[in-house]
């Protein structure tokens, strides 16, 4: 085992993923819907994996001995087996730094498990192609498969019970389209309901869940075509529709729940008002309170100016399409 460092960037789903497949082993972590995402240049995780006398996981300088740590070391076990190594996995020291808020609805688990996957593969000497690395990352966090790739990425749901057709693939590179995602943070701190728990509540109790799953393939195909054509109005309409169908599932769950706060709603309303006045921009919101606005590079500064002054907004950041995850052996 060597010491390796990796970086992976967060991604935001333009066509959402919400819910797990139940017709396959749970450890495969297969999504109930496919998804289409944009990898972000300004939000990323850096992870170092190296040998140690005992397993240790640090996140942002704090040692964890909780469920997060158990998930990290279970993923290292998975990576050790994928590398074709015999015997027990050697103890490892994992040090991760999130250059984005953790567990706040900005896909820190996606960049985190993508970086962990890349660093572990390099540390264990695994000779795996990027498609296989994406499949392994997905087992740690469903959206992590997309963060293995930069630019615009599609993750197909697949139908096989072994998950072999649940494939993340790069659709178009980062330089395909000079769009921006303006990230509007509406609070600080972690979200109250984890995504996995929220997905399961929606799946088991929301009357809208089946319609959500059934409509996803059409959204994906239409979004892919609009993306290829650089058609922002068409893509933006699909992005908003996918977003609010997902959140409708949450609101119709029993008991109902939402990740939004009052500022979330006011930012949404401000985006719609400005768009009605002629400024193109489209809302998407993940399992968290923060609003993202898909827009052109030319209008991003205007959106930052308009949304940054709204009461309750904590911070506004502009993200461009980001790069592939990468790793290197450092010792």
Q: Any descriptors?
A:
alpha+beta, globular, 24% strand, 331 residues, Alpha-Beta Plaits, 4-stranded antiparallel β-sheet, 37% helix, 2 domains, Ribosomal Protein S5, domain 2, 8-stranded mixed β-sheet
Summarize the structure in words:
It is a single chain. The protein is α+β, with helices and mostly antiparallel strands and 331 residues long. It has 2 domains: 171 residues, Ribosomal Protein S5, domain 2, CATH 3.30.230.10; 141 residues, GHMP kinase, C-terminal domain (Alpha-Beta Plaits, 2-Layer Sandwich), CATH 3.30.70.890. 37% of the residues lie in helices and 24% in strands. It is built from 9 helices and 12 strands. The strands form 2 sheets. Strands 1, 2, 3, 4, 5, 6, 7 and 12 form an 8-stranded mixed sheet that branches. It has a 4-stranded antiparallel sheet with strand order 9-10-8-11. The model has no long low-confidence stretch (mean pLDDT 95).
